[in-house]
Design a protein that fits this description.
Helix content: 40-55%
Distance between the termini: 86 Å
Strand content: 5-15%
Oligomer: single chain
Structural class: mainly alpha
Radius of gyration: 33 Å
Order of helices and strands: HHHEHEHEHEEH
Number of strands: 5
Largest sheet: 3 strands, antiparallel
Shape: elongated
Number of helices: 7
């Protein structure tokens, strides 16, 4: 019987133990050295300039350095909201807010633009319908809406004059249930708010206008 330890294994015959791993690590090391090459060259060139007293020069030709320079004016209270957003909201999430504002003023306000609004998440329980959505509709800023049923349902609480209250999000759900209080995170309301709203919609759907396919 041949010695299995000395037998060949296909194309791997004669390869030393660990040879594949060694070659793989060698390739990875070479790749890292190659990737670091330009940076190392830049560092050496910068050190050479520093020793010779040459001034630093920006790489204006780089496509990554074509954005406006970040140099906001000092905020002194004399600026209007547009100046504040355009002149100081220059990076991070502030820049995303600036982009949204500019999209609104430069495109969405054009006369020939149709504006749609989508609503999801518990927005109307916090009163957003009264505070913002209705005023936007009445002022002609929104042409159509796609909404979850929950937002339509909870907005009806305000139209019916039912009370929603600010609460503490850390309150115990067990205690709230014992006292008949429903909560949406830190919005609290009496269980009767749901019962009264349900009664309103039951009355509506029993009306003549709803007794047909729609």
């Amino acid at each position: 019987m041949p010695n299995k330890k000395s037998g060949s294994r296909g194309n791997g015959a004669g390869r030393e133990r660990g040879g594949f791993k060694s070659s793989r690590h060698g390739a990875a090391k070479k790749a890292r050295a190659s990737a670091a090459g330009p940076k190392a060259e830049q560092r050496r060139a910068a050190e050479k300039r520093e020793r010779s007293g040459e001034p630093h020069t920006s790489h204006e030709t780089s496509r990554f350095l074509r954005g406006d320079r970040i140099e906001p004016r000092r905020i002194d209270g004399s600026e209007c909201v547009a100046d504040l957003i355009d002149g100081t909201f220059l990076a991070y999430n502030a820049a995303r807010l600036r982009e949204g504002c500019q999209l609104f003023t430069q495109k969405m306000l054009d006369a020939d633009v149709t504006v749609g609004m989508t609503l999801t998440g518990a927005l109307t329980p916090a009163g957003l319908g009264m505070a913002a959505i209705i005023p936007l509709l009445e002022s002609g800023f929104v042409d159509w809406i796609v909404s979850t049923g929950a937002n339509l349902y909870h907005d009806a609480h305000f139209g019916l004059g039912l009370a929603m209250h600010r609460g503490n999000a850390q309150e115990s759900d067990v205690v709230l249930r014992e006292e008949g209080v429903v909560r949406i995170y830190d919005i609290f309301f009496d269980y009767d708010v749901l019962l009264s709203t349900d009664e309103f919609f039951r009355t509506i759907v029993q009306g003549t206008d709803f007794q047909r396919p729609m």
